[in-house]
Amino acid sequence: MTSITEASRPDAGNDPRATGTPRSMKTPEHVVEIVSDSGEGAQKCGQIFGAVSAMMGNGVWTVEIIPAEIQPPPRSIGSASGNRVRIGAGPVTNWGDRANLVVAFNEQALLARHRLDAIADDAIVLLEEMWADHDDESIRAEWSAAMEELSAATYRIVRVPMEERCLTVVDDARKGKNMFVLGMLATIYARDAERTKDRIDQALHKKSDDVRRSNRALFDLGAAWAEEHLDFRVDVPTAPNDRPMVVMNGNQALGMGAIASGMDFLAMYPITPATSVSHYLAEAFPRVGGIVHQAEDEIAAVVAAIGASYAGKTAFTVTSGPGLALKTEALGLAVMTETPLVVIDVQRGGPSTGLPTKVEQSDLLAALFGQPGDTPKIVLAPATIEECFHCVVTARQIAEAFRTVVFVLSDANLATGVQPFPRPTPDPRWVATLPDQRPVEEGAKPYGWDERTGLSRRIVPGRPGGAYTTTGLAHDDESKIDYSPAVNEKGCRMRSRKLAVFQQTLNPPPIHGDDEGDLLVVGWGSTKGAIEEAVDRARADGRRVSSTHLTFLSPLEPGLKEMFARFEKVMTVEINYSDRRADPFVTEENRRRGQLCWLLRAQLLVDVDCWTRVHGQPLAPGRIVEAIEDRLGIGAES
Amino acid sequence: MRSDDDAIPRAEKAIQGPMRAFRSALATTVEELRGIVAAHHAAVSGDAEDERAELGPFASGRIDADRFSALLGASETLDDQSIGAIEAAHAVLAESSRRGTDLARVDVRAGEDVCAAVRRATSEIGRTFGAARVAGLARSHRYVARDHARMLERFDHASWNDAERALAPPLLVVADGADPQLEGLATYLDGRQKLVLVLRDPTPPAPLARFVTPGTFVLQTGDADLLDRFLAFDGPGVAALVPDGAARFAHDPSLGARVWERLVVEHLPDPATTRRVGSRSAWQQAEDLRLLADLATPPPAGAAAPAPTPAAAAAPAAAEPIDRLATWLLRHAELETEPAG
Amino acid sequence: MSDPCSLLTCGEATDRQVALEEYTGGLPRWCPGCGDHAILSGVQRMLESEQVVPERTVFVSGIGCSSRFPHYVKTYGFHGIHGRALPLATGIKLSRPELDVFAVMGDGDCCSIGAGHWIHALRYNVDMVALLLDNNIYGLTKNQSSPTTPQGHPSNTAPDGAWLPALNPLTVTLGVTNASFVAQTADWAPSHLYETLRAAHRHRGFSFVRILQRCPVFTPGIFMEAVRKPERIELLVHDDGVRDEAAEELYEHHVAHDPSDLNEARRLAETSEHIRLGVFHRDPSRPTYETTRRLPVFTAEERIAVLTRELDRHAV
Asked: A3-235 falls under which CATH superfamily?
């Protein structure tokens, strides 16, 4: 089925140059993937393409395709590395469904994406052709086998002499093929060449002039080759941005949000996919007097952050599932001692070491209920990269106001996704002030709880007249150890009361779609874009479906029960594990459900259903549409 | 060696490290007071506007700032006079903080003597201490305008306590070498106060000779790199970057108990070659040089030996102190680079 | 203690003399005869003689008998979780270098559950005093073997006697890169204890002091001989270490040991027939972690200016 166009060879018969003016495909959106062996620069190519597209006024979502291993053997299925870039005429909030254009540096990378069902049936594939006639017989055999396997698909594969062309400019085509590809993409999508070349210079600002010059030359070469040899163009209409935009990934946004919040102490231990927050901050934090303390282990990291917070200024830690498990006891200490703390958890696939580089909404229940005993804390989840930036400011403020732990649940999808968003306007009031060091007033107590709200004012070290000992043991309002029934009851009640009070300050979440209908989809965190896009598509097909997206998971936002009652069915859509109803032995009673589903059922006594996947990938809107239709009794769910 | 174009930037660079402790304390104070002022206004006005801003755009639509602010309850408030004083203090401190390293730069104006210029600079720094004193009193309800308000205007060096003197930043003073008031700077040598002078020609050969006292670091050099060691000294000191031809010496109190152990003379011009500079006569300058030679010379092994003549002193001063200078430089090189304080 | 970090603190500097009683917190609930009482007295005496400012001091502990310590000293205190006193203290000191920080641990806390932190705290060399109150047993949880329990000593978890040779905290400590102060003293040598604490407090860096501590309930016999037979003790004596007349008179065995000699310190730390008290190692030249890492404080205004530049870097 696959048609192979040997675009570089006029003698191959199907000469695109003979077709005259290239065919222009106007489309509201397009998904392009650039895949190579790791180290060949496909990611840099994708990032620059995404940034230039954003500058020109396309909506953009860029996500990394990460190889499974650190040094995978080249030209293997596991080595596929690169980017998916989804561009649209309007805002783009997720990675979309399947790729419409794939640029592959070798046939194995293409095969990897093909096997993951990541490529649309009618996609165009631009494939490096050097492997077809390679000197190495085994490579030629691999090529043939791959072509055989791909022949069942319906892609249009265009063979491109990338290596051959690049060698006219550089000695080692591995370093620079990515710029040739960027040139091709610029021609295909009519990207502004000068802006793109500026961006190349920026990306290579640490390199020599010679390197920048040859990269620009490779870009021009790719652009010219595409101009001459490709018979198609893609037109995704652009609309100039009406306000200044910034572009970054979710982990950079979290790090920058920490700067904005005024926090200046991050204690962490390396863990994928959270670590890059500390990579960004290790470089940027010193510019505002902040330090990244890489502790000896996950426990020491959170404990040092608690110590720093206790000493006065709210600190934070970043982690992911396995690290969160190790921090369990210390988080109980923070809750018990009412020490403000921000915990950023960039979730990944679990359980155990699980899927280190892949997305899962794995830690909701662990964040809420990870500790023995009652450990009320506030849990919030950003849904977009823009929210990754802004939520840290809010989290820090709440942590201090309520003297508690605030969880920020991000995930691998946000961590590696790159999206433009309106440039924040920093306000000095976001920045934490330093704690008051004035002498403690007569009668003030370290846990002088307001009986109504459970709130109390902190006394930080340094204040004359305040010497007391903070303890993780049951204690009275003077922080004296006390195991008596009344004291323990009261301490627990006061700490819990704060959540009820905080919940009273929350507004009900908005509904996407109508206020009532046949199905309400409920989501949380990074799936918002995909869910809302799916709901829009389903509604366009006449389905009576709406969605709501929860930001606060502990305490839950108000008004949910009443909202759910206006829909025939309620279903969560999550990236975590649940038994499927049709699975053997699974009954309504023993079915294990998605984490938010579990929480909503327990908290609201509403029969909430769920549709979840643990495929290690962001959700594609198309799959959610299928799930919606299935729940509405239309079509069959796979 | 010093060239005028080079000396000022190099001295500026050297004082940046020691400035950090002061600037950091200043910024800390600004932020502490910002917190007190914000908390007070939030409590008094009952207006959630600040709360809304503090929660940031993420909270917009999600958190009701009015309810948030109301449920959190009022924090401590201050009376009008106290909060007014704190706000005034905050303004002084914030302004000083914005000036950054400028605070430490003293350019002697035309017609002004160096002491007057340093007094002007210390009173600027003093305003930060005075403002902090006012804020400290006001936040614990002890502020009385009649007694304390003037500290916001003026808080001269004479009023600084030991902690303030220890924290005061080094001053970079650009002055005429021939300034007749140079020696008056001794008034400011206390705590950990450092004065770094960049002297414009014409300069007498040993303008700092008469500053040598047991606990004061005195450095006259052409090599700005030596300032790091000088600035790291845990006590007061005065240093001058001087042109070629002037005396080069270091008096480092940590080197020993006796003055000749502490004083290392690298170069001493012949007292016979001095010429009148400004108001300073040739004899006065020769006297400076003879003083240095005297101080640097250990007494002979026997008892009271006759004082060496300046000419006689010059010879041993050339041979032996060189070794000690080498030792001193070696120590200097091994020293861990830590900011003072 | 470091400089005041705020002009407000600076302006309020007073010459107030703090009396010994002012360091007294709650009434200790340790067993009668417990070595911790003597250690507490020694610490309070040192606080008074050094005129440590109570409100600018934090005692941090983990879990165990010894970890009740902060409750009994009238300064700020943080009684945390088992084994984690050192990272807690590290966070406090990195955040507020002007605070005077003490970490008090037992042998279970320091040498077992918190052993990883112990190694790394030595390497960070944060300026604090870390006290290991080593009674060779888990006391609070009622008589289980600890890493320092002598081989053969019975406990509830090893009724026939501890299976393994005891861990030597001194050789462990002296083996860690960047260790800058290592000393040993004993609860029954009060003046030596006091002098050692004082030296530890004056050292700028991580001062590790192992204090041999008697538990009258579970290990009454372990240090009995050492207490009764002064000839079992060998004092390390040096002007750069600890000089204590009373101890030097009582204990006849002296070793002149220069604490800057790390190799000799390691040799002396090896388990032998003698119990050695004194400063094994002191290297004041090692930079402290908080001086290396800590940066100046920025105002909100300055921070926003930096953030604006960060956003510029990501603008499209």
From this structure: Pyruvate-ferredoxin oxidoreductase, PFOR, domain III (3.40.920.10)
Asked whether residue B2 carries a pLDDT value surpassing 90, the answer given is no
Res B147: pLDDT: 93
Nearest Cα of chain B lies from the Cα of A632 at a distance, in angstroms, of: 30
Chain region(s) in chain A for CATH 3.40.920.10: 3-235
Q: What is the largest CA-CA distance in chain C?
A: 79
- The C-alpha angle A22, A26, A27, rounded to 5 degrees, equals 140
How far apart, in Å, are the Cα atoms of C48 and each of A18, A147, A560, C44, C183? 95, 83, 60, 6, 21
Q: Kindly state whether residue B164 falls inside one of the protein's structural domains.
A: yes
pLDDT at residue A549, as a whole number: 98
Q: Which domain holds residue C42?
A: 7-288
pLDDT tens-digit map of B51-71: 899 999 999 999 999 999 888
- What's the confidence (pLDDT) of residue B332? 56
Q: Which fold has domain A511-631?
A: Rossmann fold (3.40.50)
Measured CA to CA, the distance from residue C276 to residue C186 in angstroms comes to: 10
Domain count, chain B: 1
Q: Residue C104: left (phi > 0), alpha (psi -120 to 50), or beta?
A: beta
pLDDT of residue A636: 55
In which residue ranges of chain A is pLDDT below 50? 8-18, 637-638
Q: What is the pLDDT of residue B302?
A: 58
As a whole number of Å, the end-to-end CA separation of chain B is 29
CATH of A247-430, one of 3.10.450.50, 3.10.450.710, 3.40.50.300, 3.40.50.970: 3.40.50.970
CATH 3.40.50.920 range(s) for chain A read: 511-631
For the whole model, what pTM was predicted?
Answer: 0.93
Q: Tell me the C-alpha distance between C85 and C211, whole Å.
A: 17
- The answer to whether residue B69 is domain-embedded is no
B94 in reach of chain A (CB within 8 A): no
| B340 in any annotated domain | no
| Per-residue pLDDT reduced to its tens digit, C142-199 | 999 999 999 999 999 999 999 999 999 999 999 999 999 999 999 999 999 999 999 9
Q: Identify which of A371, A369, A395 has the alpha carbon closest to the alpha carbon of residue A381.
A: A395
Which chain C residues are Cβ-neighbours of A472 within 8 angstroms? 79-81
**CB-CB: which of A260, A439, A504 is closest to B67?**
A504
B70 domain residue, yes or no: no
Looking at every residue in chain C, the average pLDDT score rounds to 95
Tell me, what's the pLDDT at B113? 87
Task: Specify if C307 maps to a domain.
Answer: no
Q: Please tell me whether residue A276 adopts helix, strand or coil conformation.
A: helix
Nearest residue of B to residue A402, measured between CA atoms: B72
State which residue of chain B sits closest to A397, comparing Cα positions.
B55
